[in-house]
Amino acid sequence: MCTLSIPVNIFTFSIAINCCCHSNRVDYAFSLLASTFKRGFRPTVVTYNTLIRGLLSQHKSQEARLFFANLIKFREIQPDVITFNTMIDGLCKTGHTDMALWLFRFMEKCNCEPNTITYTSIIDSLCKRGLVDDALNLHSEMMEKCILPNVWTYSPIIQVLCSLKRWEEVGLLLNQMIHDMKVSPDVHTFNILVDAYSKSGKLDDAKHIIQIMNERGVYPDIVTYNTLIHAYCSQGQMDGALAMLNTIRSKKIMPTSYTYNILVNAYCRELKLDIAMDIYRNMASDGLSPTVVTHNILLHGLCQLGKSMEALTFFYKIQGLGHKPDIVTYETLLGGLCKNHYVDKALSLFRTIECNGLIPESKTYNIIICGCLRSKKYDRACKLVDKMVDCGFSSDATTTSVLRHLLLSKAQDPTLVALYQKCLH
User: Fold this and answer.
1) How far apart (Å, rounded) are the C-alpha atoms in residues 36 and 81?
2) CB–CB of 416/407 below 8 Å?
3) Is residue 84 within 8 Å of 114, Cβ to Cβ?
4) Assign residue 267 a region: left if phi > 0, alpha if psi is -120 to 50, beta otherwise?
């Protein structure tokens, strides 16, 4: 356009600057800003708001603060509510809540009225820091100023009150939200309540929230149902959990791998491995593939029942099907094999970890070292300790305890004494 002498103005430049910011090229955006001055244009508050938002979106909060401060200092713009909201939101998201509060009060001194977005950003940040009383005071302030809160204002306050088990205040706030302010909770707000009540063992209250959701035309999603299934499982009500799975299917909501993982884990905990395996096999009927977490749960269940060789067979089977293990998979198997006195198998498996592109961690080493010690493979344990130390890890409380116990019965064993000293070092 410039080459063809097609007229451009500050609005043309502002659009181009906005595009650069959205493309994560804020450096190009500032180059365009320089061009506006060269052409004699005066950037508008919209142009500067766009640049501030661009800097914040690229996590350049310090540069954004400096840029904003210079704009105010040299009176380049009269900041509007969008300018302040952009800065306040950016400060809150980077954990600078105190600075956001200072800017909030400065905003009022500049005769720029905060709006719902301003209050909501700061309330959300205060709640994330656990400062719920400060958030409630700010909420009261906005009500006094007739600035109407929205669902995003209420949700973080409800969430932190739930986490603190201040149930009476939760009920009052929810009542105010729905009946006084006519603000309809969304599925996220309801999910907060269902999750909080479920984790506190208040299953009836959680089910009551589901009833309110249905009455208000807000339909539970998979997150809601996963939370309820988890609550049923936690209380050992497996029939209720399975009934909830059937409810999900009847409502044409697709279960997720996480849904199945909750059920598989619950049945493994109950030592009902046959049912856990049936549920695992049923994942395919919902078009789902088991995750590494699913396999780890089942391997742990097998090991808990003393079926470590079956666990090893299952491990090789899923590997053959293309499922990749993680370090937790190996630690689960190593622990099971060592516990059931298959230390040679565990040592053999330990040697394959790095072949699968994984790096043993401190816990991995300590599991296999403890297994060697309990099986009186002291020389092998000594070599593993050396390797562990070379990797920058140290023995944990379990390893040290096993060594101390062995020393009490075999105090004169020089290998054990040397090993104990290494571990202490």
Assistant:
1) 24
2) yes
3) yes
4) alpha
Say what the alpha-carbon torsion angle 258, 259, 262, 267 is, to the nearest 10 degrees. Answer: -130
H helical segments located in 292-355: 292-304, 308-320, 327-339, 343-350
In angstroms, the CA 353 to CA 391 distance is 15
Rounded distance, CA 375 to CA 390, Å?
A: 24
* Residue 184 Cα to chain centre, angstroms: 26
pLDDT band at 302; cut points 50, 70, 90: very high
- What percent of the chain clears pLDDT 90, i.e. is strictly above it? 72
Residue 232 near residue 244, CB atoms below 8 Å? yes
Q: What is the pLDDT of residues 251-269, one digit of tens each?
A: 889 999 999 999 999 999 9
Helix/strand/coil for 390: helix
Q: What is the dihedral of CA 218, 222, 226, 227, to 10 degrees?
A: -30
334 close to 318: Cβ distance less than 8 angstroms: no
Distance CA 13, CA 9 (A): 7
What per-residue confidence (pLDDT) applies to 139?
A: 95
Please name the residue that has the structure tokens 């994330």: 128
Query: pLDDT by residue (tens digit) across 92-110?
Result: 988 889 999 999 999 988 8
> Count of alpha carbons within 13 Å of 265, Cβ hemisphere only?
19
Q: Strand, coil or helix: what is 201?
A: coil
pLDDT tens digits, one per residue of 33-45: 999 999 999 999 9
**DSSP letter string, 30-74:** HHHHHHHHHTT----HHHHHHHHHHHHHTT-HHHHHHHHHHHHHT
- Please report the pLDDT score of residue 95 as a whole number: 87
Q: Is the separation of the CB atoms in 45 and 83 below 8 Å?
A: yes
Q: Rounded CA gap, 89 and 91, in Å? A: 5
Residues 6+ apart with CB under 8 A from 2: 8
- Per-residue pLDDT averaged across 81-96, rounded? 92
**Residue 111, pLDDT score:** 85
Rounded CA separation 68/242 (Å): 56
Residue with tokens 């990749």: 324
pLDDT at position 352 over 90: yes
Q: Are 410 and 416 in contact (CB under 8 A)?
A: yes
